[in-house]
Amino acid sequence: MALSKVDYNSINVTAAASKALKWNSSANGFETGDVGGSLVLLDTFTSDGSDDTATFASSIDSTYKEYLFVWTDIHPETNDTDFTVNFRDGSTAYDATKTTTYFSATHSEDGTGGGLSYETAVDLAQATGVQKLSKSGMGNDNDHSCSGLLHLYDPSNTTFVKHFAARNHYSGHDEQSRDEYIAGYCNTTSAIDGVQFKFVSDEIQAGVIKMYGVL
Amino acid sequence: MALTKFNYNSFDVTPVASTTMAFNSGANGLTTMSAGAMTLIKTVTASSDSSITLVNGTDDVVLDSTYPIYKVEMINVHPSSEQKFYVNFRDGGSAYDATKTTTQYRAYHFEGGTGGAVGYQDGLDLAQSTADQMIGQEIATDNDASGSGELWLFNPSSTTFVKHFMAHFSHHYTNAAPGCIDNWTAGYCNTTTAIDGIQFKFASGNIDAGTFKLYGIKDS
Fold first, then answer.
1. Which of A5, A17, A112 lies closest to B26 in CB terms?
2. B109 and B44 in a common domain
3. How large is the ipTM?
């Protein structure tokens, strides 16, 4: 005998697309609602040990007003290199026009070099090139890496420019802690539908980058 | 007559472990859906505590390879006396003494309108030190004064890389000089031993009040 299963419209609640089925606040009936948590994991890049880029080319659309990228222990092939980001604004190229700021705090293991400074060589003014998330100095010792996060706001908006803000921390080749702050906007009213991370040269040899949608 | 109850496999959807039942994108059938990626692991409410510790395997705290990223929210941390606020990390022993190299700067602005500035804080950073890292300056003891912020800790269980952390903590400055101090601290525990505990405390005195929420951020 065929098993008779409960169909979606047999449940005493009005169906709502992509909503979870929950008990109501009185625990005496069903209701629809969001799945618990406001951070939804959308995609993960895990380095295979020799990646030229880490590219997120899908799932960036109007579903979420904010996207959060979190990278952990990104390890470069080359010493004294720069980790970067760029954005795709309609074509296949990652070349959105950007105006940005960059400043960082530094301090070395020998106690020298403590300071906070703006870096005019790292910011961008209406440039299509990559935005550095780490200023030259990242190390490739086995235990060296960088970790950080990037917020991308309302990428599908076709009225406003697209704001982003990032914070990165790395352990440098000269045994230095560098805490970096990058912000700016893609100066376009076209939607941003892709984000690409890479080093200015050579490979990403380890690390994980996760893309979340923020409800 | 006994009520017949629906079993887990009575619904017209294939069960998937640890997911929620939801309506599909067409609202014309059932599907499974994963919960959000950020999981609240533990909430600790301070009440005249000399320190707040979050230790893997203690009091339901998870701080291991279960999650690659951890975040601690510090909400309305209130001191018993005007003291700096610190964090430290445990790297294998019972002591909170991981070796750290860090940066520290702050922006500040007083209620009288003076002092709007930002600057690096020599002496509040660390260079290969096991000492506690300051993440907040002296917080006023007025009843309505407190500090709030967040701490990110990346991949604490890694035995390959050093352990990066980043903190942002904003607070009400002293009773004598009321204002906002916005502290930004980052660094790394210079060890390839796993970090399995975090401790928050004031230089002296107690954490009279405050909520500390530990989240794990999933990797799948």
1. A17
2. yes
3. 0.80
Contact state of A39 with B38 under an 8 Å Cβ cutoff: yes
Question: What CATH number corresponds to the domain at position B143?
Answer: 2.60.120
Residue type, B161: F
One digit per residue, pLDDT tens: chain B, 220 residues? 566 777 778 888 888 876 788 888 888 988 887 777 888 899 999 999 999 999 999 999 999 999 999 999 999 999 999 999 999 999 989 999 999 999 999 999 999 999 989 999 999 999 999 999 999 999 999 998 999 999 999 999 999 999 999 999 999 999 899 998 999 999 999 999 999 999 999 999 999 999 999 999 987 6
Domain range for B19: 1-35
Q: Is A115 on the interface with B (CB under 8 A)?
A: yes
Please tell me whether residues B31 and B41 are part of one structural domain: no
Q: What predicted TM-score, i.e. pTM, was given to this entire model?
A: 0.85
In angstroms, what is the C-alpha Rg of chain A? Answer: 21
B105 — contact with chain A (CB < 8 Å)? Answer: yes
Considering only the beta carbons, identify the residue of A21, A72, A144 that sits closest to B23: A21
Inspect the interface and report whether the beta carbons of B162 and A171 lie closer than 8 Å.
yes
Count of CB contacts below 8 A, A vs B?
A: 179
State the total domains in chain B: 2
A49 Rama class: left (phi>0) / alpha (psi -120 to 50) / beta: left
Q: Same structural domain for residues B100 and B52?
A: yes
Give the strand order in the sheet containing B85-90.
B52-55, B197-202, B85-90, B133-136
| Candidates A68, A144, A179, partner chain B, best to mutate (most B CBs within 10 A) | A179
Structural domains of chain A ordered from first start:
36-214 (2.60.120)
Residue of A nearest to B107 (CA): A116
- Alpha carbon of B186: minimum distance to chain A alpha carbons (Å): 6
- Given A21, A75, A111, which is nearest B127 (Cβ)? A111
Q: Indicate if B4 and B61 belong to the same structural domain.
A: no
Q: Which residues of B touch A167 (CB under 8 A)?
A: 166, 186
Same domain, B184 and B137: yes
Residues B200 and B188 in one domain: yes
Strands (E), chain A: 20-23, 30-33, 39-46, 54-56, 66-76, 83-88, 98-108, 115-118, 131-132, 146-153, 162-171, 176-186, 194-199, 204-214
Residue B213 one-letter amino acid: K
- If asked whether residues B26 and B49 sit together in one domain, one would say no
Same domain, B142 and B69: yes
